[in-house]
Amino acid sequence: MRKVISFAHVSLDGFMAGLNGEMDWIKVDQEIFDHVGKRIGKGDTALYGRVTYQMMESYWPTAADKPNASRHDIEHSAWYKNVRKIVLSNTLPKAGLINTEVISDNITDRINEIRQQEGEDILVFGSPGATHSLMQRNLIDGYWLFVNPILLGQGIPLFKHVADKVKLKLLTTRPFTSGVTELNYIVV
């Protein structure tokens, strides 16, 4: 069975974004891009909430075409064009989307059907609303977190709507020269 893995940058105090969705505090560099690229490059399914999907869709399909595109932009753009995209949304129009499926109802059943299909892990990229919805339904099998060395004090939390205690097992950890630390957990 495929696993649903939440991939997120978080502050040390557990926020995915500031109160207004700002993410200018997230540290990313070539070392992190290279590390993340190895893992997601093998992935075949990305799951987003509507807001994150629209943000991704506004940049990644053409990122490689820009005159000064970085190696990361070229590689991630190619991956993004080919990956199967699933969007949890009640408002996103379903017509005209390329390689994208919108799920607006029966979320638990639909995600479980997708988990039964052949393929790699389903990576949930950021997407606080989608992540919280999946948490409420106990559909997240692991957390791949990049803890940034900052305290926001307030913002949009990663862990919200956790119905009961969720025990985790640490699989790997890795510090980066930027001060960001990767924590990779599975739900036990």
Distance between the termini: 15 Å
**How many beta-strand segments?**
10
Number of helices: 5
CATH topology descriptor: Dihydrofolate Reductase, subunit A
N-to-C series of helices and strands: EEHEHHEEHEHEEEE
Catalogue the unreliable spans.
none
Biggest beta sheet summary = 8 strands, mixed
Radius of gyration: 16 Å
Give the tags:
188 residues; 5 helices; Dihydrofolate Reductase, subunit A; 28% strand; 8-stranded mixed β-sheet; 10 strands; two-stranded antiparallel ribbon; alpha/beta
What does this entry show, briefly?
The chain has 188 residues and is an alpha/beta fold.
Give a description of the structure.
The protein has five helices and ten strands; from the N terminus they run E-E-H-E-H-H-E-E-H-E-H-E-E-E-E. The protein is of the alpha/beta class and 188 residues long. It has a single domain, classed as Dihydrofolate Reductase, subunit A, CATH 3.40.430. The strands form two sheets. It has an eight-stranded mixed sheet with strand order 5-4-3-6-1-7-10-9, with helices on both faces. Strands 2-8 form a two-stranded antiparallel sheet. Strand 9 and strand 10 form a beta hairpin. Helix 1 runs parallel beside helix 3. The longest helix is centred in the middle third of the chain and has 12 residues, at 71-82.
